[in-house]
Amino acid sequence: LTVQPAQPYIWVMPKTGAAGSVVNLYGYFRRLPDMVKQEGKTLSVKVDGTWVADVVTGSGLQAGVARYLYNTTGLAVGAHTQTFEWAGDLFVDAGSGSASLTITP
Predict the structure, then answer these.
(1) What is the dihedral of CA 92, 43, 49, 8, to 10 degrees?
(2) pLDDT per residue as tens digits for the range 34-88
(3) How far apart are the first and last CA of the chain?
(4) Burial 3-38 (b: 16+ CB within 10 A, else e)
(5) Mind listing the domains of the chain with CATH numbers?
(6) Which of 9, 10, 12, 19 qualifies as a cystine partner to 30, CB 3.0-4.6 A?
(7) pTM of the entire structure?
(8) pLDDT of residue 15
(9) Are 41 and 62 in contact (CB under 8 A)?
């Protein structure tokens, strides 16, 4: 008997922030097909494909939520991509979710 890992579901909230400000990036991590919130899982946060930080999903009322305060200083005005990436484990396959990060003047 071979048990396959569940598929990940990672939803990322689109964000807009002024250049030089701090924006709160959010990623929501669940597994499919039952949508169970994933607690205590480490996700890598990337902006335009560049690693920014590793964050851990919360528990309790914040179960499955990963947050990161991102300083936009040095990021060009315009459209960017934020990604929350899960490396996978025995129970849930690797995966990622992305959304826009728009920087205004």
Answers:
(1) 20
(2) 999 999 999 999 999 999 999 999 999 999 999 999 999 999 999 999 999 999 9
(3) 57
(4) eeebebbbebbebebeeeeebebbbbbbbeeeeebb
(5) 7-104 (2.60.40.10)
(6) 9
(7) 0.94
(8) 98
(9) no
Contacts of 33 (CB under 8 A, 6+ apart): 6, 7
How far is 7 from 14, CA to CA, in rounded Å? Answer: 22
- Is residue 75 within 8 Å of 47, Cβ to Cβ? yes
Residue with tokens 């494909």: 49
- How is residue 83 written in tokens? 């990604």
| Per-residue three-class SS string for the chain | CCCCCEEEEEEECCEEEECCCEEEEEEEEEEECCCCECCCCEEEEEECCEEEEEEECECHHHECEEEEEEECCCCCCEEEEEEEEECCCCCECCEEEEEEEEEEC
